[in-house]
Amino acid sequence: MNNARASRIVEMFEQRGEDFHALVCRTPQNVVMLTGYQPILGNTFCIVTVNKAREVEVRLAVPEDEEDRVPQGAAVEVKTFAEETMDYIGNTIQAVREPLAELLRSAHVNENPVIGYEGIYSPIATAYTQVGAPGPATLDLLHKLFLGGYLVDATSMFDELAAIKTEEEIDFIRRCEEVGRQGFMAAREAVRVGATEADVAAATYASLLRAGYAAPGANHVLPHVHVMAGPRAAMAYKAFNLTSNRPIAHGDTVTVQMEIGINGYWAELTRTFFAGTISDEWRKAHEACVAAQDAALQVIRDGAAAREADGAARSIMAKAGFGPAFKHGLGHGFGFQAINHAAAPVLHPASDAVLRSGMVHNMEPAVYLEGKGGIRLNDNVVVRQDGNEVLSSQLSRDLDWLVVQ
Q1: Which of 16, 55, 251, 280 could join 20 via S-S bond, C-beta 3.0 to 4.6 A?
Q2: Residue 270 CA: distances (Å) to CA of 171, 265, 379
Q3: What stretches of 254-355 show up as alpha helix (H) in DSSP?
Q4: Which residues pair with 363 in a beta bridge?
Q5: Measuring CA to CA, how many Å separate 49 from each of 21, 34, 76?
Q6: What angle do CA 107, 45, 209 make, to 5 degrees?
């Protein structure tokens, strides 16, 4: 574990008093954040304690099939369990109980402890076709294991820890950015009049998979692509985007949104292409989005108010005549998840967040015109002490590249 994050954990434990003994989690994004190991099925349990020497210790209860995925040194102790053998059929809660009890005894968690658990109000980062998640059965198991103890919702602790990325984590996000750049190159080649949104998405998926598995250190790649063209792109401000089989027409805006996950680290990016030509209105809208990003970047630095960065961008959009068409906040945090609009830092007119060095967030000014189309320019930024770094700077935002003949 990164020294800065370990120090923060020690500080958090000490702030909560000597009765606070452990954090327990099982969502994939929190396990990645604490260990660098991405659970595939979401059935891994992670226990975090601080010993008498003020050292952070991590213990894992891992499905047998995932044991070889745990990086060396990620935990001081690993126990495995099996939900199914040729002799019995069980489930995660039944199978993990004894290994988890053994790990708690090993960590000296006993005698009326206070234990922090995941309350969960944020989305869960997917890692497979289905992912196990904490629920009433998980909470009931913890109650039974911590006889005489007290369970407290530690969601805010996990969120605070995840908000500041280590340089190693930022490096993995950079790999996602490069993979995304290659995906957009494939998307550009696929955008043409008569092609469908699905055609563009298929070509982009293929590129992301090839480039993702070619990235250094990649062992699990999970891309998502969403393509919305013409009037459908005006709906891209909603909580989710969906590709259709709609053909692309001459002059359409073609919004391509992608999320790239490599080993549990994520990037989220969007570019809008223009099929064959671009109207004066869309040219003006695109120029406003570029200027809005540039204005926000003048604000983004350690200690800045997140609402001020949003305000700088929103002011540009309003002056260009697109204020009402910019229908969401400027950005939100990402890294252990691709899209969680509540992930710190939230750049929004109502946000009370303060930007801190190491925070990673997107920056997505947009214009959505009902019945016509929409454009969004989504880039990724890491906050630095004296400014910021645009992680997606190698991905062009120039019209001479985005207008596809």
Answers
A1: 16
A2: 20, 17, 7
A3: 280-297, 306-319
A4: 379
A5: 6, 12, 11
A6: 140
Cα separation, 316 vs 290, whole angstroms:
10
Residue 148's pLDDT is: 67
Please list, residue by residue across 7-29, b when 16 or more beta carbons sit within 10 angstroms of its beta carbon and e when fewer do: ebbeebbeeeeeebbbbbbbbbb
Across the range 314-327, mean pLDDT stands at: 98
What is the percent of the chain with per-residue pLDDT over 70, rounded to a whole number? Answer: 99
Which residues are CB-neighbours of 60 under 8 A, at least 6 positions away? 31, 35, 37, 44, 45, 46, 47, 70, 74, 75, 77, 78, 79, 103
pTM: 0.93
265 has a pLDDT exceeding 80: yes
Instruction: Give the ranges where 36-166 is alpha helix by DSSP (H).
Output: 92-106, 136-145, 155-163
* CB of 318 closer than 8 Å to CB of 297: no
Phi, psi of 308 (to 5 degrees): -70, -35
CA–CA distance, 124 with 28 (Å, rounded to integer): 7
Helix (H, G, I), strand (E, B) or coil at 343: coil
Q: Does 69 score more than 70 pLDDT?
A: yes
Structure tokens at 393: 């700077």
The DSSP result for 22-39, as a single string, is EEEE--HHHHHHHHS---
Terminal C-alpha separation, the chain = 49
For 381, the token pair is 């930024």
Q: How far apart are the C-alpha atoms of 336 and 124, rounded to whole Å?
A: 10
Please report where in the chains the tokens 């994939």 appear, as a residue. Answer: 28
Q: List the structure tokens of 295.
A: 């204005």
Q: Identify the band that residue 147 occupies on the pLDDT scale cut at 50, 70 and 90.
A: low
